[in-house]
Design brief:
The protein has 406 residues and is an alpha+beta fold. It has six helices and 24 strands.
Length: 406
């Protein structure tokens, strides 16, 4: 179910997207940094190591990345806890840049707010990487050198942080050494383990949870299709590490926020998410995941509510995730609303893949409650279908739980 979007939203977004091109033409070209980028937060999808690898080196490979490439499959399958020590040299030259740049990329400027780059937190032309599936793995910065620890088992890919329509000339020479995980620290590496069941996840628990969320008037909406066990800090960390962006629930405030910061990726992601209700109150958190421009009509998003009960002492977060794929008419008022993908299990699986790719999920399971929700229509007139299974994710809860004091 989707709340009808305000008229200002539809007037605002096209104006922003259309005005992007002429704005770029008026800006000064990028310049390369004198040293590696500073002020760019490192991605937590891989762990930066401050200790030299102690495990045995198991392979070395060299690659040449041409300036017109985006992603290169290294053919290297990393195991959890393995070190990948990556070094790079070389230069690229972009048509509108004043000078060449190295693997650290160009200094980020205003133009980067209107570019769609594989990794928006790094400069254009920077050497980046990802570990895992292409559609869910979160890119991270390599620059000239990085020793990264793989949090999961997955394929390593190298990339140049640039758009297909705006590539550089030149090459990067990249060397990779992979070291086996330190056996003494193997227990510290969290791996997502698929289990048939979890203690406390049963029909007695699901008797306390409504099958669907609703709007303020009580009209039934999206299906409850996932549950997270873990502290509030752990829940926030797994979403932000996986590249999800926290979304405000007040539509008017998010539209105003979009006017102020109209060209950033986060602004597009956070416009807007209406309030829906579970346990008698609006969502505690909203999260969105999408490319910036396409979010106008397509966006992966979800809402989460903290339950009043726990499972074996762990905080329970109940959620509903859907994928906006376009627009449709709202049967309640003949307005325009977002249309969801009717196969909502695909979005449930997307949540699983993105969060599991962080290495912060300990266990994964699926539970089919009594009287499962398999097919229904939303209050706006759209339909959806599901297997009825609810995704259960148990997080690495080593971070202190602060949610109980809120």
């Amino acid at each position: 179910m989707r709340k009808t979007l305000p008229a200002l939203y539809f007037l605002l977004v096209p104006a922003l997207t259309v005005s992007a091109a002429p704005t770029r033409a008026q800006l000064v070209g990028d310049t390369p940094p004198s040293q590696q980028l500073t002020g760019t937060p490192p991605s937590e999808s891989s762990q930066q190591s401050n200790v030299r690898p102690t495990g045995k080196k198991r392979l070395s490979k060299d690659f040449t990345l041409k300036g017109d490439s985006i992603w290169t499959d290294t053919g290297i399958d990393l195991n959890p806890g393995e070190h990948a020590v990556i070094t790079a040299k070389g230069t690229l030259r972009f048509a509108d840049a004043k000078e060449d740049n190295g693997p650290e990329g160009l200094t980020r400027g205003f133009k980067d707010l209107i570019r769609v780059l594989p990794f928006n937190d790094a400069g254009r032309g920077a050497l980046i990487a990802r570990i895992g599936e292409a559609d869910t793995a979160q890119p991270f910065l390599i620059g000239a050198t990085k020793d990264t620890i793989s949090p999961i088992a997955g394929r390593l890919a190298l990339g140049i942080n640039q758009a297909k329509s705006d590539t550089g000339d030149g090459t990067y020479s990249v060397h990779i050494d992979v070291y086996a995980a330190d056996p003494a620290a193997a227990s510290l590496h969290v791996v997502s383990k698929v289990v048939d069941s979890m203690p406390g996840i049963d029909n007695e628990l699901f008797a306390k949870i409504p099958r669907r969320v609703g709007d303020k008037a009580g009209n039934p909406g999206d299906m409850v299709n996932f549950m997270i066990l873990g502290s509030e800090a752990a829940m926030q960390k797994v979403f932000t590490t996986a590249g999800w962006v926290h979304v405000d629930s007040d539509v008017k405030e998010t539209v105003l926020h979009g006017l102020i910061e109209s060209l950033s990726k986060e602004s597009y992601l956070t416009m807007p998410m209406s309030q829906l209700y579970l346990f008698g109150r609006p969502q505690d958190y909203g999260w969105a995941h999408a490319e910036p421009i396409s979010v106008v009509k397509t966006r992966n998003h979800l809402r989460i509510w903290k339950a009043s009960f726990t499972v074996n002492g762990q905080t329970v977060w109940v959620g509903a995730a859907t994928h906006d794929i376009g627009f449709e008419r709202d049967d309640r008022n003949n307005g325009v609303t977002h249309k969801i993908d009717p196969n909502i299990d695909l979005e449930r699986d997307y949540v699983e893949k993105t969060l599991a790719s962080t290495g912060l999920v300990m266990e994964i399971s699926h539970f089919l409650p009594d009287n499962p929700m398999k097919e229904a229509r939303t209050a706006t007139g759209g339909s959806f279908h599901s297997s009825g299974q609810v995704l259960i994710l148990k997080l690495d809860d080593s971070t202190k739980d602060l949610s109980a004091v809120h």
